Amino acid sequence: MSIGHALLGLLETGPRHGYDLKRVYDERFGQDRPLAYGQVYSTLSRLLRNGLVEERGVEAGGGPDRKRYAITDAGVTDVSSWLVTPEKPEIYLQSALYTKVVLALMSGRDAEDVLDAQRRAHLGAMRELTQRKQRGDLADQLICDHALFHLEADLRWLELTTARLADLGKEVMP
Amino acid sequence: MNEPLLRGVDLRKSFGQTPALDGAGMGVAAGEVVAVMGPSGSGKSTLLHCLAGIVPPDGGTVSYGDRDLTAMSDKERSALRRSEFGFVFQFGQLVPELSCIENVALPLRLGGAKRKAAEQAAREWLARLEVDQLADKRPGEVSGGQGQRVAVARALVTRPRVVFADEPTGALDSLNGEQVMRLLTATARETGAAVVLVTHEARVAAYSDREVIVRDGRTREPVVI
User: What is the CATH number of the domain that holds A35?
Assistant: First the structure.
């Protein structure tokens, strides 16, 4: 999962300092793996270097880490492109997709576009497996079937999430 | 995609006050298998019915080659369906009183073919669908998967240019469903037929060349990255 893009997505809802970003990230996406402080600040340094965020003042009473960061136009473009670039279809659905859906909703983008792009990528992978299965022997067929059933489960999740976007939107709106 | 053989544009259809299609559109080229996917009630079957000329849309156009289906009389559309289109549905499409071979021969007989010639062609198609041993059995005597293969043979026996399949594996288990899809898509590709395949199952859609998503009566275009 691209931590940099997730932080950029969170910054789209308004400037934040590093600690605040970590807190919101952990609350929304870090269920099992909260971000390390070091990772937040090294990621922000890289985003700053690449012109995707800029410094926007320092919070009063803070130490060296109370700088506030804001997303730049280039950062918004980068997030937009990331959101509609499908994740590589893996056997198990990545939390990256959930993160993208939530960030698309939070920023007022069409989250269905995110899900549609992923559906196409998944169906593309399923087509390849289906063709391989038809050419292959029984062992190939069984191996492909295993992957096909897992990808199908992902797609069911995509359909269910599509049907629940309105409810999810209400929950995650800042 | 090559030039579509069949194309629906801005299709609208309501049943009473309930809108089923609200500006849907899609095309399918000769030799292409297109899956129409979407949740229950999204309008995908209505889209198939409009494209096939079974249900006239309230608005929009359906063109088949250089002909406008929406401008045809019922009689003209019916003749077109019989001669150029083939249909596979989920249930109840075989005539229970006729044997499997008579069922497959039926579209040819309705088109005026002699019984012997029609049944010879029907036997060949039953063999292609790997159910020729069932020729003399009645639909009630064969399994669901076998019956569906007979139905596919019947849909293809007239060598249609477009095959419409609405949830063709919906009543079958995984293995039978796969056999039907493998045979349906392979034979349709061999004959160069276009296939419009309505399904809500991703593993069925994976036999297609591409998919069209229908939601709330509209078709969704792919996102351009």
Answer: 1.10.10.10
Interchain CB distance below 8 Å, B205 and A126: yes
Instruction: Supply B135's token pair.
Output: 């020729």
Q: What is the Cα A123 distance to its own chain's centre?
A: 20
CATH code: domain B6-93+161-220 is 3.40.50.300
AA identity, residue B151: A
Burial class (CB in 10 A: 0-12, 13-18, 19+), B108: buried
Q: What is the domain range of residue A151?
A: 85-174
Final residue of a structural domain among A23, A53, A79: A79
Sign of the torsion angle spanned by Cα atoms B143, B146, B149, B151: negative
Per residue in B180-190, pLDDT (tens digit) is 899 889 988 88
Check CB contact of B220 with chain A, cutoff 8 Å.
Answer: yes
Of the partner residues A81, A134, A152, the one whose CB lies closest to the CB of residue B203: A152
Predicted pLDDT of residue A137? 87
pLDDT tens digits, residue range B39-84?
888 999 999 999 999 999 999 999 999 999 999 999 999 999 988 9
Contact A126 B220 (CB under 8 A): no
Burial of B217 (0-12, 13-18, 19+ CB in 10 A): buried
Q: Decide if B67 touches A, using CB distance below 8 A.
A: no
* Both structure tokens of A65: 């880490």
- The structural domain count of chain A equals 2
Residue of B223 and B28 predicted with greater confidence? B28
Residues A44 and A58 both lie in one domain: yes
Instruction: Examine the domain organization and report whether A74 and A93 are in the same domain.
Output: no
